[in-house]
Amino acid sequence: MAVNPVKGLGLIAGVNRPRVFICGGTGQIGAGLVRHLKNKNYYVHMVSRWENWTEPLCGAHDACTWKDLNDWGLPPDTKAVINLAGSPWQRRYWQDDASHTAEALASRMETNHALKRIIDRSSCAPIFITASSTGIYSEGNERLDENGAIGGSKVSELWQAVEETANTVSPKSRTVIMRHGIVLGRTGGHHYRQRAWSWWGVGGPYGSGKNIMPWIGLEDLCRLYADVLTDDQYQGPVNAVAPQKITQKEWASATAYEIKSVQFLRYPKALVNFWCGTPFFFAAHLV
């Protein structure tokens, strides 16, 4: 029977490697980050509702549940806690928009609150990193840094609520809020779906296609997370985006070119809002 890493501290104490807990690590970003940090010689534990979700990615000895973490707390040599947990923002067309948005918001706020309680009663002072989005900024084409204007849209209000819960974590921990752009990878996420649609010639732009799409490659994002773990200058919000400006139309064309496809379908704004609910694709943010 596998010994839980939190319960079995005597078994794995003194591993002489920085210990990192990743919550919600079964998605594209989490799985990529686990591999990257393991290659950087970190001792990585994955936290999920069920151990069998994370065992294939990190091994039976390194998987634990939220209940385990809540009952037993963090080991004293914990370097960082990274929260990537949360249900997808984009709903399916048959789901109710309001209830799905509330669920997606609550899943992020509740996990931040849970980790705050766990960190507050721990004997260590781990770095706390949580995921947010560039959708928090006000819409526009001016370039924004981390101090840029926020608000003005439903999307922004949702991410503000998420970040407020992250800012309540104990001051003994260095808190970093990673504001992701769209993450480009081949194992999941919106870019993965965009490539699939493009195979059939239906990956065309949404609406006018002029909206700015902040983006970052998965490997670059993982390297940025690793930098945050070692550089104390990272504090508070961090824009996790590439420096290049690209519109949604250019992005769709580049995806089609990559897989040698031709795009002949443009999606009207109303259709995308009906399919996905909250209009995440039409906000223009240059960060």
Summary of the model, kept short:
The chain is of the alpha/beta class. It has ten helices and nine strands.
Annotation keywords:
single chain, 287 residues, alpha/beta, two-stranded parallel sheet, 15% strand, globular
Shape: globular
Helix/strand order, N-terminal first: HEHEHEHEHEHEEHEHEHH
Distance between the termini: 48 Å
Structural class: alpha/beta
**Tally of DSSP β-strands:** 9
Strand order of the largest sheet: 3-2-1-4-5-6-9
What kind of sheet is the major sheet?
A: 7 strands, parallel
Q: Care to describe what's here?
A:
This protein is an alpha/beta fold and 287 residues long. It is built from ten helices and nine strands. It has a seven-stranded parallel sheet with strand order 3-2-1-4-5-6-9, sandwiched between helices. Strands 7-8 form a two-stranded parallel sheet. The chain is globular, with a radius of gyration of 19 Å.
